[in-house]
Amino acid sequence: MALLIRNPNLSGWRRDTMKNITVVICNYNYERYLAAAIGSAVGQDYPGTHVMVIDDGSTDGSRAVIERYGTRVSSIFKENGGQVSAYNHALGILDTEYAIFLDSDDVLYPSAVSEVMRVFGDGEWAKVQFRLDLVDQTGDLTGAHIPHSDPPPDCGRLLRGGWLYPSPPASGNAYRVSVLRQIFPVPAAAINRYGADFYAIYGAALLGRIATVPRSLGSYRLHTMATVGVSSANSEQFGRDPQVFSMRWAILRDIARARLKVELPLSFHDFAHEKARFCSSVYQAPFLTRWRWVMRDSRSYLYAIVANPFWSVKKKVGTLALSSLCLVPCSPLSDFVVRYITNPLARRRVSGR
């Protein structure tokens, strides 16, 4: 694997004590965006940056894009097995102490690695996370970012109680490799081919403290700019089947029990997950249907607000007040409220007026 030395005289880093990090780019048929992702990785200003690209059996022109970078990246071409299999493969061969798993349609800003390595140098962190700016398909900034809240360093304690902590998707996380190797390999068959970042994000919190960089160090691409479906859950784009989260939680429970001797609860709490159910139940729904949902099925949604350990009282009261407006007879107002709660871009547009 080639060590990228971008600036031998870079101040602030002693080359004899520098720790190395690998930016792992997992790609499948994203020829259109791949060059930007690789370019952002090889362009990092941290001298000890390695770049590994794992192509998961792409059938487009991705291989030609990867090969243009020659020895500047370590390239691996494997049969298609899904994102989980790509993470499994990478963690079996990584030879650096730290890693960032960058999705091939996202990018890192030039100082991202330097920022996270400075944080890693200040403590024994299992993971360092940072915000990601939301961009549209063409890469233009939308004015929003994720996540919207920062977790406490000891969020593993809350995770053991079932609370999924606020985290960016895959590209906004840097890990200690030795931590991830206690979680992976993860079963990669059937419907569990994707969502590898779920196991990395929450598994890391079970093994150590989480640090947060309170600014954006990269961008996350939104492929669907629909009226509602542009929000993001803790570990993947909002709008996917909420039942998939439950399946992944069950697998994480099994891994935690067998490998870490940690017992997680049967169910989890997460507002991003609950707002997906909220949206699917009340958006553009008749007045009586909205009331029926509130009376019969809103318990877990309300609990994820009232008991949320990551939110201020002001945010809880505001979200409850907004949610109650879904009970008014006016359908346009109800739909606006759903968009405002579930869609960060809707909030941005309103505040910009």
Structure description:
It is a single chain. This protein is of the alpha/beta class. It folds into two domains: 21-260, Spore Coat Polysaccharide Biosynthesis Protein SpsA, Chain A, CATH 3.90.550; 280-351, no CATH class. It is 39% helix and 18% strand. The protein has 14 helices and nine strands. Strands 1, 2, 3, 4, 5, 6, 7, 8 and 9 form a nine-stranded mixed β-sheet that branches. Helix 1 links the parallel strand 1 and strand 2 (49-56). Helix 13 (331-342) packs across helix 14. The chain is globular and about 65 Å long. It starts with 20 loop residues before the first strand and ends with a helix. The model is unreliable at 1-16 and 226-240 (pLDDT under 50).
Total helical segments: 14
CATH topology of the largest domain: Spore Coat Polysaccharide Biosynthesis Protein SpsA, Chain A
SSE ordering = EHEHEHEEHEEHEHHEHHHHHHH
Question: Helicity range of the residues?
Answer: 25-40%
CATH architecture of the largest domain: Alpha-Beta Complex
Query: What's the number of domains?
Result: 2
Cα distance spanning the termini: 50 Å
The biggest beta sheet reads: 9 strands, mixed
Number of strands: 9
The portion of residues forming beta strands comes to 15-25%
**Which structural class best describes the helix and strand composition?**
alpha/beta
- The average pLDDT is 88
Q: Which regions are unreliable across 5 or more consecutive residues at pLDDT < 50?
A: 1-16, 226-240
The shape is globular
What's the CATH C level of the largest domain?
Alpha Beta
Computed CA radius of gyration, to the nearest angstrom: 21 Å
The CATH superfamily of the largest domain turns out to be Spore Coat Polysaccharide Biosynthesis Protein SpsA, Chain A
